[in-house]
Structure formats: structure tokens, C-alpha cells
Amino acid sequence: MHQVDYMAVADKVMEQIRKGAFLTVQAGDALNVMTIGWASVGFLWGRPMFTVMVRNSRYTYKIIEKSTEFTVSIPLTDMSRQLEFCGTKSGKSHDKFKECELEIYPGKKVRTPVLDIAGIHYECKIVYKSAINPAALAESYKSLYPNKDYHTIYYGEIADCYSTVDEK
User: Fold this and answer.
1) Which entry of 63, 66, 100, 114 is 20 to 30 Å from 27 by CA?
2) What 3-state class would DSSP assign to 17?
3) Is residue 108 a contact partner of residue 160, using CB atoms and an 8 Å limit?
4) How far is Cα 55 from Cα 166, in angstroms, rounded to an integer?
5) What does pTM read for this prediction?
6) CB 104 within 8 A of CB 114
7) What residues contact 9, with CB distance under 8 A and at least 6 apart?
8) CA dist list (Å): 111 to 19, 32, 104, 108
9) Is pLDDT at 168 greater than 60 in this prediction?
10) Residue 19 backbone phi and psi in degrees, to 5
11) Tens digit of each residue's pLDDT (9 = 90 or more) over 35-92
12) Cα angle 111-113-119, degrees, rounded to a multiple of 5
């Protein structure tokens, strides 16, 4: 495990997010992982930031609303089976960690655990959240919400960023 500059790996991270990444959230005893495909890495309010979107109807939403942090794991090996499962099954009725054989380890800077996978990992502290306002959403994006199942956007200040893969 070694530290990486969050912006130095941003291109690699954004390329993988299009294929899927893992968002892990915890509040008390409630723990869940879900697949994300929409996110961004950047610099806001003078701080490194990772933004994630969670639909308000998701089990993950109920947990992250009670939390102050999250972790994101960007797989650098083929995890398409696990990404598919975690993106289509609810943690309310499935133990995704067990069913996908996903191990976790404690976060270094946050209480939320991190997936024990070969990848790039972000530990984030939520500094702001914003529910999507359908009235303010551009018409061209409204078709992404045919069921009016909008997201809340969570802005996480990056507390730590590291890789568990040795670059050759």
C-alpha cells in the first residue's frame, strides 16, 4: 500500500468509474457497498474532493444519510461480476460482502472500512450534500430519471488516497 496523489491518478480513476467502482458506507452497525458509475474527483473550496451520487430510493442512501464519511474503491483488476452484483442487488436483502466474497479492512483516516481489493482507494469525509432539484435540472438530463428517482450528491473531502497495486 502506498500513497498516491489524487489528481495524478484522476484519469485512470475516471476511466474505471465509467466501468464501475465501489462506494462503501457505514453508520453504526449498518454497512453496505454499492456500484457507482457517476462521480467526480476535483478541487472545491480549496480542498481535494470526491463527489458521489446516490439515488434516494437506495438502501445505501439510508445509511449515508446517517454517516459523515464514505470510502471509494477503484478496482484495477477485473471485478465485473462483483460490480454487476453490487449494482443490481440491494444490501437490504443481500449481504453483498459475503455473496461477492469482498473482504474489508479498517480505514486509515475514517471509520468506514475499505474494500480489500487491488485498486486505488479514497477515504472521504462528507462536507456537503445536495439533493437534485428536478426544476433546476437541464431538460436534456431529465430522461435519465424516467421514474423521478433522483440522486443526492455527496461531496467528500479526500482524507486519504492510496493504491494497493505496485506500479511497474
Assistant:
1) 100
2) helix
3) yes
4) 34
5) 0.95
6) yes
7) 120, 161, 163
8) 27, 14, 12, 8
9) no
10) -90, -20
11) 999 999 999 999 999 999 999 999 999 999 999 999 999 999 999 999 999 999 999 9
12) 135
Work out the pLDDT band at 167, boundaries 50, 70, 90. Answer: low
CATH fold of 2-163 reads Pnp Oxidase; Chain A (2.30.110)
Residue 49's identity, in one-letter code, is M
**Are 119 and 90 within 8 A, CB to CB?**
no
Q: Are 90 and 57 in contact (CB under 8 A)?
A: no
100 Cβ neighbours under 8 A, 6+ residues apart: 81, 82, 85, 86
The answer to whether 117 and 77 are in contact (CB under 8 A) is yes
All structural domains of the chain with their residue ranges? 2-163
Residue 130 C-alpha cell reads as 445536495
